[in-house]
Amino acid sequence: MPRYDEIGIGYALGRRTDPRWLAPLLSALGDARSVVDVGSGTGSYEPPGRRVTAVEPSTEMIRQRGAEAAPVVRAVAEALPFASATFDAALAVLTVHHWPDWRRGLAELRRVSRRQVVLAYDTALHNDFWLVREYVPEVAELERSRPSAPEIADVLGASSVRVLPVPWDFTDGVFPAHWRRPEAYLNPAVRRACSALAQTPPAAVARGIAKLRADLESGRWRAEHAELLELPEWDAGFRLIVA
Q1: Which residues in the chain come in under a pLDDT of 70?
Q2: Helices 102-112 and 149-156: crossing angle, nearest 10°?
Q3: Domains and CATH numbers, the chain
């Protein structure tokens, strides 16, 4: 069963397109007119105004796609059902870390397209996120098992790697999105939209969230993280890779 058939219920409610990430993605696609969006999920970052074909293995995620979303093919990244050089560009947004054989998946992106645009993250920087470091350290073990942005860039032979910081009021509920809004993590719906938490043992998450709740109530979190409250954006490790 695809992973997101289990953890993706209600995903579209918490993971919404943020234009501050969509704009650099569109720029990275350049003049590509035909795009395959691999691991497209609910279609949050499908580029408008282009011929897009979505690829998604999860029935649950496909079910949540809106009527305006691109046509979708149910398949996996490691075996794309397209001839070589079919597309001008391949797009993969926060999906490579879910691929069982990520190197083979990247090879498939290169096979079917002349340009590859991949949004990934540096796992070491993710593990330095205060929620991991201080409250749910078990997430770090999961992240260490995933490919990191520098590895992905190296395998692709990237021509550029751009930092995509997370604004404090980010609308896409990716795991570190609420770095300056810690109360959000007390909401079960917010936690369900974060695959890192959804795939961590529930007892560990419950223990960490209970500690966070206590630290918020006592004022300890704000006292220890006062510097974050002054920042408009923060580098959580997200990298836009172009090859």
Answers
A1: 1-15
A2: 40
A3: 3-242 (3.40.50.150)
